[in-house]
């Protein structure tokens, strides 16, 4: 899988001019694994994702986000049931999760994403999908919902609110377990990811691009400027969040 993705990336003459962004790479992993699952297990070569496929991915993202909130890399069958997920769908068909070889001390079967960064990516994808498809900020305890299409001005304000919530959540986590989550969320704001790569798959081709990114960029710049420079790791992550969102890959 990795070889296929790298081969695809190296087809571009300009690849390597800028440091590669992580988010498009993980988006391509998701696309590759989902299409592979549809071909192998659903016996279809149709690359248009069904409502059922999108729902499974959303619920897997919800599971990942729930585990991230608990700062846990491991989940159980009851966690999948709470997200209305089928065990085989998650651990076999998706290609994103696996069962751990040993059971827990209480004899329960344990599962995890094949890599923790994949869990962080899926959590970010869930938060972004809920915002773009359902107009919900799941990071806000007073989560809002607007059934009608948001105006450009309203969406601009709401995307700023979403990222502000994510930044505050990340900076308040002393363990740093939301750092990559924020980086992926910012990366998904890039039209290259949510429109070019995921358009026609997870989102409709004619869906409007996310607006208000200038305000989000200003927020990240201010956050970087006011960050504690003695915490170099956190500062570098904030800089990478900004790059994930604004870098244009040729």
From TrEMBL:
Might you report a single GO cellular component term? Answer: cytoplasm
Q: Which positions fall inside the NACHT LRR and PYD domain?
A: 115-245
Arranged from A to Z, the UniProt key words for this protein are:
ATP-binding, Cytoplasm, Leucine-rich repeat, Nucleotide-binding, Repeat
Q: InterPro entries from the entry?
A: NLR (IPR051261), NLRP_HD2 (IPR041267), NOD1/2_WH (IPR041075)
The UniProt record lists the NOD1/2 winged helix domain at 56-111
Q: Which Pfam families match?
A: NLRC4_HD2 (PF17776), WHD_NOD2 (PF17779)
**Which locations, inside or outside the cell, does it occupy?**
Cytoplasm
Q: Provide a Gene Ontology MF annotation, just one.
A: ATP binding
> Where is the major localization of this protein?
cytoplasm
> Which protein, by its recorded name, is this?
Chromosome undetermined SCAF22870, whole genome shotgun sequence
């Amino acid at each position: 899988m990795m070889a296929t993705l790298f081969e695809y990336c190296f087809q571009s003459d300009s690849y390597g001019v800028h440091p590669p962004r992580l988010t498009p790479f993980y988006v391509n992993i998701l696309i590759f694994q989902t299409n592979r699952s549809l071909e192998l297990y659903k016996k279809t070569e149709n690359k248009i994702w069904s409502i059922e496929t999108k729902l499974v991915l959303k619920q897997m993202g919800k599971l990942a986000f729930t585990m991230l909130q608990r700062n846990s890399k491991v989940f159980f069958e009851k966690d999948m049931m709470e997200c209305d997920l089928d065990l085989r769908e998650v651990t076999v068909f998706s290609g994103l999760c696996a069962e751990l070889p040993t059971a827990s001390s209480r004899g329960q079967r344990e599962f995890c994403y094949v890599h923790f960064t994949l869990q962080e990516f899926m959590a970010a994808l869930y938060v972004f999908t809920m915002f773009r498809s359902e107009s919900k900020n799941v990071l806000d305890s007073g989560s809002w919902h607007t059934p009608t299409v948001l105006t450009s001005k309203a969406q601009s304000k709401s995307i700023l609110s979403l990222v502000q919530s994510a930044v505050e959540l990340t900076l308040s986590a002393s363990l740093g377990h939301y750092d990559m989550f924020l980086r992926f969320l910012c990366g998904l704001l890039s039209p290259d990811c949510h429109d070019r790569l995921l358009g026609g798959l997870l989102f409709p081709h004619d869906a409007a691009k996310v607006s208000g990114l200038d305000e989000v960029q200003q927020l990240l710049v201010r956050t970087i400027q006011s960050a504690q420079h003695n915490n170099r790791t956190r500062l570098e992550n904030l800089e990478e969040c900004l790059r994930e969102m604004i870098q244009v890959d040729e």
